[in-house]
Amino acid sequence: xxxxxxxxxxxxxxxxxxxxxxxxxxxxxxxxxxxxxxxxxxxxxxxxxxxxxxxxxxxxxxxxxxxxxxxxxxxxxxxxxxxxxxxxxxxxxxxxxxxxxxxxxxxxxxxxxxxxxxxxxxxxxxxxxxxxxxxxxxxxxxxxxxxxxxxxxxxxxxxxxxxxxxxxxxxxxxxxxxxxxxxxxxxxxxxxxxxxxxxxxxxxxxxxxxxxxxxxxxxxxxxxxxxxxxxxxxxxxxxxxxxxxxxxxxxxxxxxxxxxxxxxxxxxxxxxxxxx
Length: 276
What we know:
10 helices; mainly alpha; single chain
């Protein structure tokens, strides 16, 4: 199953070719070739009638080739596709939106580094690392979406403030209740309310952990970027490139585990913990 970067790269190739062919510079070259062919078909006696069209075709081909092979262009097109897939505008909280934008910027910078590297073993390993970085950025997006939903959840905020008081009321009522049947029902209700409070606290703890992990991930992305700037062919034998890839994989798995635990606790509140 292709990862997100491989999937978007396939779309990027098509987008890059379209961009390359429809650049305004190509329009100028083609228009110039047509005008020169019409109004100045033979600037020299030996100049063939197809001279200007040939030069125009060569100019367009050179421009297309430079666009397709340009590292910055490839990174920019891929970044646009990442932004479309992981759209920062979906994040309402401005701080979280800025965090996601930073992650996408690091991803673009790393893509530029990868495309600047010549074909070979190092390029292959850096490509594999960049594939993992795509999954990493995807996890950052999912984490920011969860944090954003949590911060925007007014019902959850009310439950967090209301539940402790409701529990105190139930405990006080149980102390006054004389009927054994009602007393047992209150015990069951209090047990459920305590369980609900525990999951509320667990959710709050997970979200605090998520905030810290998001900050750590952005710092780690910056570190990975700096390391990829410095890595060279001489690092192949030392295993530095493999350690770099292992570090990225660890970050991806850590975010995967955190998101899964958040989803588990959050879904309990939505479906089984008392929230409607």
